[in-house]
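Lab channel / #folding
Pinned by the channel admin:
"Please post every new chain as: sequence first, then the structure tokens as a reply. Keep commentary short and put observations after the output so the thread stays searchable."

First post following the new format, from NK:
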Amino acid sequence: MPVHRHKKDTTPTPSSSTQEQTVPPLPDQQTFQQYLRELARGAIRVVLAAVMREELDALIGVGWGECSPKRKGYRNGSYTRDLVTASGRIEEIKVPRDREGQFHTQVFDHYSRYERATRKSFQLAVSAAAPQ
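Reply from TO:
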């Protein structure tokens, strides 16, 4: 005996009125500023990682995964450190290292945990990355 299948209606039903839709409330100023600080910390983390990766590439002589007779060394994972910025604390930044231990990033001073050391490096990285 054939089974009758009922097809479900997939067309959206129009709402009775578009005026009934509610607009989500705007966040208060403190919540908004906190959100902006989180975005800034995320952006700083991305830029710092890219700059340190480029520095290590320059030291080693080749990019990650590349083979070349120009290679001067090998990568050896990374270690983590924290950095305090005007936007707040950025935790567990992965700092790459080389196998011989010769790589020391110019992004921040050795043993420095505060932003004052990163401002000049950040400005240099942004100006170098900007198209001219």
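NK: Residues 28-129 form one domain.
TO: also worth noting, The chain has a mean pLDDT of 79.
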